[in-house]
Design a protein that fits this description.
17 helices; eight-stranded parallel β-barrel; two-stranded antiparallel sheet; binds flavin mononucleotide; globular; 362 residues; alpha/beta
Length: 362
Amino acid sequence: MLATPLQIGPLRLETNLLLAPIAGWCDLAWRMTVRQLGGVGLACTDLLSPVGLLCGSEATADLARTNDFDKPIGMQLYGSDPALLAEGARWCVDRGATVVDINMGCPVDKVCKKDGGSKLMTIPETAVAIADAVRRAIPDNVPVTAKMRLGWTEADAGKNVAGVLACRLVEAGAAAITVHGRTTEQRFKGNVRREGIRRVVETVGERFGAYDGTAVGGPAVIGNGDVRTPDDVLDMIGQTGCAGVMIGRGAFARPWIFRQAWAMQTTGDEGRVEESEKLDTVLYYFNRLREFRGDANALFKLGQKISWLGKDINGSHCRPLKDAIREARSADDVYSAVQEWRELSVRSGAQNLSEPVGIADE
Ligand SMILES: Cc1cc2nc3c(=O)[nH]c(=O)nc-3n(C[C@H](O)[C@H](O)[C@H](O)COP(=O)(O)O)c2cc1C
């Protein structure tokens, strides 16, 4: 097997797999939940406003909250003012960031209207000035990375805007580039175009030398988009030549995908995830939410996310469990719901538990 842990500038990760920033999901509770299952080389915060960080916004600081277990951690900044992002980057490093990432892929109007997110792909001078300012602002041992799309429009993708910008960002000091294989116009629709990611890999390789898994070779390009299974990871690497794979939504239903995909790459076998471990994962997540956000918010958040978290429990046949969690009014209700489902699983020994309880699947 050819799998190599990812090298991002001076930083060597344990695997070549990264947890993507997903606003509304990727808080400390979720990152810890995914990490404790294994296989995560690097996780990232949601996008952070440097103004929010520097003005002491509690909500932004909460998004940036980390701890010793949550390492290595990338903190992602968005915006268009190089000096402000540089100051934000220093804030992040002072609060424990292992990597500082610059968002160049967010398609949301609120962000793009102020020239941040993927709008930066259309104003490369500003994008480069940001990478340069952030690089200069923080110590050399903290890599700067950027996450982008294939370009704003189809025509941009055709012109390899991402490959050209990636090279300029590396010249300005970026140690790795993540490419989500869609344009901004596509938002999250349509298929991810792996050939577009491949083009960026090739362009960066031609300019700086091929990535060779060490700090000596060219910079890493990380492939992202629509990776749902360990096989998708192999395909992404095989079809693009990318050095690492970033996974976002695929982890909602399979937070163990990182462990499985790393096992698949290193041993050829993704291994099994027992049903009991899936339930333990729901509880681990709930307990972290309780710890960091208090019971009311933990109940609300778990209720919001259980549809996703349940998609791989008992082959997605777990409607009674999901309903009970959504209806839970106290932490004990959640523990009882999970315990009842656990006992039912053990008793029935079946894969399809919707039958014994007689409730149709969603
Ligand atoms: C709800 C949602 C929120 C997202 N938030 C961020 C973000 O804060 N920063 C970022 O760089 N990308 C963000 N993304 C994009 C993801 O990181 C990722 O590039 C995209 O979902 C494709 O990868 P996936 O198919 O593995 O999810 C978000 C995507 C979604 C669906």
